[in-house]
Amino acid sequence: MLENLGDTALAGQVCGLVALVICVVAFASKSDDRLLMLLISANVAFVLQFVFFESWTAAVLTLLVIVRIVLARRYMGSKTVMVGVLLASGVAATFTWQSWVDFLPIAAMVLGTFGMFLLRGISMRVFLGLAATLWMLSNLLIGSIGGTLAEGLIVVTNIITIIRLARAKRKYPDVFEDPEVLEVITNNDRSS
Q1: Which ranges does the record mark as transmembrane (predicted)?
Q2: 43 with 65: CB under 8 angstroms?
């Protein structure tokens, strides 16, 4: 099957598979900070994948996802910065729009941006999971095997992590709101 792919498409597939590995590790993390840092690395691979597949809106928006992650970590809760990211995404999408398929990365960008700036923990992961579902559909439609698998596994891993966080919240309701304490508790649960 892969022998029928041109060099560019094959390079896109490889980038998608690299992103897959990084994303699974990221979404398995209960630490928001670790999750966001690993997502930066995965999104570099996704940018390259979309470039190789000539999916320009997805490529530019994924590049903006990297900027969004950095800004969301620094300006958590800032609606002004969030709106700026959304406006930049809208402008980028306007200049790179090719077909209706580009609507999927745009919608994913909006959901992910809202989740990263305004939410934490389980709520953030729900929005990121919805965004991953849209990215999965986008990858499927452009023919990226690695990207489709990566986003599909992100969705599944994200669901598992949400369940783990919900269990930790039920088990330790008094300390759940303190992320540093939660990280210690959930890591101890994993080792037992």
Answers
A1: 9-29, 35-67, 79-97, 103-119, 148-166
A2: yes
Structural domain span for residue 39: 1-175
Helix axes 56-74, 79-96, angle to 10 degrees: 170
Number of domains in the chain: 1
pLDDT recorded at residue 3: 62
In a domain, 106, yes or no: yes
| Residue 187 banded pLDDT, cuts 50, 70, 90 | very low
Residue/partner pairs of 100-105 with CB below 8 Å, 24 or more apart: 101/55, 101/138, 101/141, 101/142, 102/55, 102/57, 102/58, 104/134, 104/135, 104/137, 104/138, 104/141, 105/55, 105/57, 105/58, 105/61, 105/62, 105/134, 105/135, 105/138
Residue 52 lies inside a defined structural domain of this protein: yes
In a domain? residue 183: no
* 188 domain residue, yes or no: no
